[in-house]
């Protein structure tokens, strides 16, 4: 479980997160839904220990990343937004190095590598250097790196950005399998259909705060809207913006 | 007990760092551009040095001015008196000054047809000196000839005055003589004095591309963040990068030392009065004293490159900044400032002094080498800790 308690964060005096609190339960897929600049990436970076919150506390399992970053990082698998690979390494070398950094070795390492190779359909890429990989291939390798040490918590920042349909389907399949295995999954996105399809629970973020939480159906019921998109607009931008859209557009 | 625990923690930390070190080494050694740069520069400077030395010796052996005197029979005294070891005088009845200068001669002196007649009548006969000022070597030869002609003229004046009962000293209140104290040996020593500076520069250049790639390059390619979320401390990340960068820099300087040692027998150093006295132990010591410096150069370049926003930005900044220490070394060397022994504790200056001594087989104090290397290593550790803090800077993360 990931717990975020009253965290605030400012950059150069501009508040990005304001007293943000939420829980991410085990065995569920939770989506952070927000427009660009809503504070999603900053929030995820604080959970990973890459940024320090000005106030508040985060728990990844039993570890606070601000106080015990190594403890938190051992329980985390992270796929960042638009992250790069090491282009002079093969996929096998890349994954082996990251698995070893997470403390794997011997038989456990060989089994972990074989598992991600199988699960993420990496056989054809296995001994190729990552230079020139497509966006989908890069995502598969990044996801394999995040999963190779079987972390309890998986964090993904805009994971479907730039992916083709096959890559999105593989990602979806992988996340559903991990959910079934009890992994805590938190991902950020601003793509409504992806959030509606993948997540068990949606946290709507606006101006550094959670302004709505629940299943897509619960959010629709709460706002009186028929779609997640309308619910999001109503929650993130207020009823006026939602009404303006509804009135201004033909049904 | 506490100290033992700390040492144990460092050893465990280094073991945890091993996979990252492997990654950094694989990336560094597979970067063909960086490798090519390191190898090329390392081999280029010893080759240039060997070529330069051979050229200097050749030039020195050819240091005889060839002078053609047209119409020498009209002034036999001049042609005769000018003959000397450094001046090869060829007496010619006639010839074209331009053609002679274009040929084998450095200078052409033409004695006018009425020289003898005017000389007898004390009517200052004319001599024409033809030079090719575009020939860089002609200036020195011209000055030497003018000095000789001046001296000859003074001798004639003195004889004429003496014949008339006038003391010639009255016309010359003093005599200025220029003496060139440069010896072949001192010129040769100057050549070898540049070698330590060039070896250190090789180190800087061989480290550069990898240092930039593993820091600013990693930021630019957005591959730094996945690394920062691994259970590794900042010091482990900086240490692994430093070791990988230093390995390439050290290889560069070892290649340069190897090439230099192999080429030295081909260099005509004996012509400069230098006996090659580099021993096997000296060569090993040269490699060893450069190792701590390679680590220091690597970590400092990484720290500077981490501050840059892009690969190109880092490369430009480092290219400019790395010139400074090398220029400092060369200025110190050219100014021939005598430094106290304690200056050997300073990085760069220490290594330069030791390399200079080891290269010509002089005795170098092992104690000073150990103490200076220890100081360099302490600075490496301090720089790694600074780098670990730099990795916590929020500005290192990409804007999303």
Keywords summarizing the entry:
heterodimer; A: alpha/beta; 6-stranded mixed beta sheet; 3-stranded antiparallel beta sheet; 10 helices; 9 strands; disordered C terminus; B: mainly alpha; 14 helices; 4 strands; 6% strand; ABC_transporter-like_CS (chain A); ATP-binding cassette domain-containing protein (chain A)
Which sheet architecture does the biggest sheet of chain B show? 4 strands, mixed
Distance between the termini of chain B: 47 Å
Q: How many helices of chain B in DSSP terms?
A: 14
Helix content of chain A: 40-55%
How do the strands line up in the largest sheet of chain A?
Answer: 5-6-7-3-8-9
What does this structure look like?
The complex is a heterodimer of chains A (251) and B (400). Helices cover 41% and strands 24% of the residues of chain A. Mean pLDDT of chain A is 89; it is low at 240-251. Chain A has a six-stranded mixed sheet with strand order 5-6-7-3-8-9, with helices on both faces. Chain A has a three-stranded antiparallel sheet with strand order 2-1-4. In chain A, strand 6, helix 6 and strand 7 form a beta-alpha-beta unit. Chain A is α/β, with parallel strands linked by helices. Chain B has 14 helices and four strands. The longest helix of chain B has 37 residues, at 184-220. In chain B, helix 2 packs parallel to helix 9 (234-263) and helix 9 packs antiparallel against helix 14. The model of chain B has no long low-confidence stretch (mean pLDDT 83). A four-stranded mixed sheet of chain B has the order 2-1-3-4. In chain B, helix 3 links the parallel strand 1 and strand 2 (87-92). With 400 residues, chain B is mainly alpha-helical. Chain B starts with a helix and ends in a 10-residue tail after the last helix. Chain A binds chain B through residues 11, 41, 45, 48-52, 69-70, 73-74, 76, 78, 80-89, 93, 96-98, 100-103, 142, 145, 157, and chain B through 16, 18-20, 22-23, 26-27, 30-31, 218, 221-223, 225-226, 228-233, 394, 397-398, 400. Chain A: It comes from Microbulbifer harenosus. Chain A: Belongs to the ABC transporter superfamily. Chain A: One of its GO terms (molecular function) is ATP binding.
């Amino acid at each position: 479980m990931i717990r975020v308690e009253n965290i605030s964060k400012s950059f150069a005096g501009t508040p990005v997160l304001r007293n943000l609190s939420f829980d991410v339960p085990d065995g569920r897929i939770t989506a952070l839904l927000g427009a660009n600049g809503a504070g999603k990436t900053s929030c995820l970076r604080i959970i990973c220990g890459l940024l320090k919150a000005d106030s508040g506390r985060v728990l990844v399992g039993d570890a606070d990343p601000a106080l015990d970053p190594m403890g938190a990082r051992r329980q985390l698998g992270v796929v960042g937004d638009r992250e790069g690979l090491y282009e002079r390494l093969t996929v096998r070398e890349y994954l082996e190095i990251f698995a070893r950094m997470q403390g794997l070795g011997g038989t456990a390492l060989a089994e972990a590598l074989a598992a991600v190779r199988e699960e993420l359909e990496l056989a054809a890429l296995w001994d190729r250097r990552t230079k020139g990989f497509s966006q989908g291939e890069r995502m598969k390798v990044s996801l394999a790196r995040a999963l190779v040490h079987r972390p309890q918590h998986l964090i993904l920042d805009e994971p479907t950005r730039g992916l083709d349909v096959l890559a999105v389907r593989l990602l979806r399949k992988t996340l559903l399998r991990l959910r079934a295995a009890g992994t805590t999954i938190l991902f950020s996105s601003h793509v409504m259909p992806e959030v509606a399809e993948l997540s068990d629970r949606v946290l709507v973020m606006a101006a550094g705060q959670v302004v709505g939480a629940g299943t897509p159906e619960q959010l629709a019921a709460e706002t009186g809207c028929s779609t997640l998109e309308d619910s999001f607009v109503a929650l993130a931008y207020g009823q006026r913006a939602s009404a303006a859209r509804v009135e201004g557009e033909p049904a | 007990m506490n100290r033992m625990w700390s040492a144990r923690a460092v050893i465990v930390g280094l073991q945890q760092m091993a996979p990252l070190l492997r990654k950094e080494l694989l990336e560094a050694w597979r970067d063909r551009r960086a490798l090519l740069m390191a190898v090329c520069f390392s081999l280029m400077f010893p080759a240039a040095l060997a070529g330069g030395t051979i050229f200097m010796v050749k030039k020195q052996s050819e240091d005889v001015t060839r002078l053609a005197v047209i119409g020498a029979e009209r002034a036999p005294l001049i042609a005769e008196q000018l003959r000397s070891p450094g001046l090869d005088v060829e007496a010619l009845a006639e010839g074209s000054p331009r053609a002679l200068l274009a040929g084998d001669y450095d200078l052409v002196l033409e004695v006018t047809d009425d020289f003898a007649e005017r000389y007898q009548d004390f009517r200052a006969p004319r001599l024409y000196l033809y030079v090719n000022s575009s020939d860089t070597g002609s200036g020195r030869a011209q000055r030497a000839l003018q000095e000789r002609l001046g001296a000859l003229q003074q001798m004639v004046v003195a004889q004429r005055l003496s014949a008339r009962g006038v003391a010639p000293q009255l016309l010359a209140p003093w005599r200025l003589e220029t003496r060139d104290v440069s010896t072949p040996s001192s010129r040769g020593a100057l050549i070898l004095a540049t070698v330590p500076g060039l070896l250190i520069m090789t180190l800087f250049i061989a480290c550069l591309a990898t240092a930039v790639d593993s820091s600013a390059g990693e930021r630019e390619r957005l591959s730094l963040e996945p690394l920062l979320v691994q259970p590794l401390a900042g010091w482990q990340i900086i240490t692994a990068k430093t070791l990988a960068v230093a390995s390439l820099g050290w290889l560069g300087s070892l290649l340069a030392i190897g090439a230099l040692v192999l080429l030295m027998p081909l260099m005509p150093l004996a012509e400069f009065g230098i006996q090659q006295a580099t021993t096997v132990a000296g060569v090993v010591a040269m490699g060893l004293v450069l190792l701590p410096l390679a680590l220091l150069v690597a970590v400092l370049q990484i720290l500077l490159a981490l501050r840059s926003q892009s690969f190109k930005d880092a490369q430009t900044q480092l290219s400019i900044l790395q010139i400074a220490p090398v220029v400092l070394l060369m200025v110190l060397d050219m100014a021939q400032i005598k430094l106290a022994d304690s200056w050997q504790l300073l990085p760069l200056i220490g290594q330069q002094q030791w390399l200079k001594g080891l290269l010509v087989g002089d005795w170098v104090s092992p104690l000073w080498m150990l103490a200076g290397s220890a100081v360099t290593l302490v600075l490496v550790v301090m720089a790694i800790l600074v780098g670990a803090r730099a990795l916590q800077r929020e500005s290192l993360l990409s804007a999303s």
